[in-house]
Design goal:
Keywords: Apoptosis, ATP-binding, Kinase, Nucleotide-binding, Phosphoprotein, Serine/threonine-protein kinase, Transferase
Oligomer: single chain
Bound molecules: adenosine-5'-triphosphate
Distance between the termini: 36 Å
Shape: globular
InterPro entries: DAPK3_STKc, Kinase-like_dom_sf, Prot_kinase_dom, Protein_kinase_ATP_BS, Ser/Thr_kinase_AS
Strand order of the largest sheet: 1-5-6-4-3-2
Helix content: 25-40%
Protein name: non-specific serine/threonine protein kinase
Family: Belongs to the protein kinase superfamily. CAMK Ser/Thr protein kinase family. DAP kinase subfamily.
Catalytic activity: L-seryl-[protein] + ATP = O-phospho-L-seryl-[protein] + ADP + H(+); L-threonyl-[protein] + ATP = O-phospho-L-threonyl-[protein] + ADP + H(+)
Length: 360
């Protein structure tokens, strides 16, 4: 089991280019000096004191670490090492080089349902693994579904970001209002008990988008999206779903059910005839049906635009805090002091993600 190291991460790892960023810090490529192996270092700012609005509580990060430590599955990102210091914690993670699944698909000219299922089945296997360990992810969305490598015949799915994941102990009730509006289940908004079925709703939404390029509950605003989710009403527009098989729609229908007890479990999903055809007819249907690529590309372009818009707003806020703008500070010093700053006037970057906010 990985233990927390107190030395400076840069003594053991060479920090390289930035790979991505979240609301609580950055992810950078890094190279372990002793072995030459490449990893992804997730740098997470820790909250300086209880009332502080910047950074994450240490125990929240420790929970992510505790969960990742228990997971070893080909479709789940692995944790290699953890560092802790006064202002930040650094998770050294398996390096995932293939980018997001949705970006990979959006580059294709066409994709049959059969091809899409090859990816979906891997997502389901990863989720089945965590659910079998009584862990729910609670943040399944396209940004958290990546490919280990993309220039290979059968790219391997990796589920990332266990920042909201929870171990659901037997008989315990867990409630939370976290997640991303487009993908969260009605029980999250209604502040009702959550569990593995909450992930299954998100898988229903992801599948719907994958096939159609439409988001089933998306409204003009987050408030409207949340209202649509709670109503549970959505439809399969014939013009958009004309290339979609009936089995695919059945698969989605059995996930986007308001009552979590009515939804398919992940194990049931894996044996649904759309995923595991029972006869030749069903198998042929999957290869003849295809995803609505024109719409999907549009959805993905909009999604990327919104993500970068949110990121630019976040950077602007940091700049207003005069942190990114101080050329005198070296990187380590900068990382240390970012966590110590408070911005009273603007809504902090740090709170955006774990709340139901402008991320849909
Ligand atoms: P968010 O606020 O979006 O939930 P977060 O702070 O929890 O983000 P992650 O989602 O874990 O951080 O990572 C942010 C981004 O960094 C990812 O979207 C991805 O692009 C990149 N990333 C994360 N982990 C890895 C990895 N293991 N290998 C390569 N890139 C990664």
């Amino acid at each position: 089991m990985t233990s927390f190291k107190h030395e400076n991460v840069e003594d053991l790892y060479e920090l390289l280019e930035k790979l991505g960023s979240g609301h609580f810090g950055e992810v950078k490529k890094c190279r372990e000096k002793s072995t030459g192996t490449y990893y992804a270092g997730k740098f997470i700012k820790t909250r300086k004191c209880k009332g502080s609005r910047l950074g994450l509580d240490r125990d929240q990060i420790e929970r992510e670490v505790f969960i990742l430590q228990q997971l070893e599955h080909p479709n789940i990102m692995r944790l290699h090492d953890v560092f802790t210091s006064k202002a930040e914690m650094v998770l050294i993670l398996e390096l995932i080089r293939g980018g997001e699944l949705f970006d990979f698909i959006a580059e294709k000219e066409a994709l049959s349902e059969e091809d899409a299922i090859e990816f979906l089945e891997q997502i389901l296997k990863g989720v089945a693994y965590i659910h079998s360990r009584s862990i729910a992810h609670f943040d399944l969305k396209p940004e958290n579904i990546m490919l280990l490598e993309k220039d290979v015949p059968h790219p391997k799915i990796k589920i990332i970001d266990f920042g909201l994941a929870q171990k659901i102990e037997d008989g315990a009730v867990f409630k939370s209002m976290c997640g991303t509006p487009q993908y969260i289940a009605p029980e999250v908004i209604n502040y009702e008990p959550l569990g593995p079925p909450t992930d299954m709703w998100s898988i229903g939404v992801i599948t719907y988008i994958l096939l159609s390029g439409l988001s089933p509950f998306q409204g003009e605003t987050d408030q409207e999206t949340l209202t649509n989710v709670v109503s549970g009403n959505y439809e399969f527009d014939d013009r958009i779903f004309k290339q979609t098989s009936e089995l695919a729609k059945d698969f989605i229908r059995q996930l986007l059910l308001k009552d979590p007890r009515d939804r398919m479990t992940v194990v049931e999903c894996l044996i649904h005839p759309w995923i595991k055809p029972l006869n030749r007819n069903q198998a042929v249907n999957r290869s003849r049906s295809s995803i609505n690529m024109k719409n999907f590309k549009k959805f993905n372009a909009r999604r990327k635009w919104k993500l970068s818009y949110n990121m630019v707003s976040a950077c602007n806020r940091l700049c207003r805090m005069k942190l990114l703008c101080n050329p005198m500070k070296d990187e380590e010093e900068l990382r240390q002091c970012e966590s110590d700053q408070e911005d009273e006037k603007t809504k902090p970057v740090t709170l955006l993600r774990r709340r139901l906010s402008n991320s849909s």
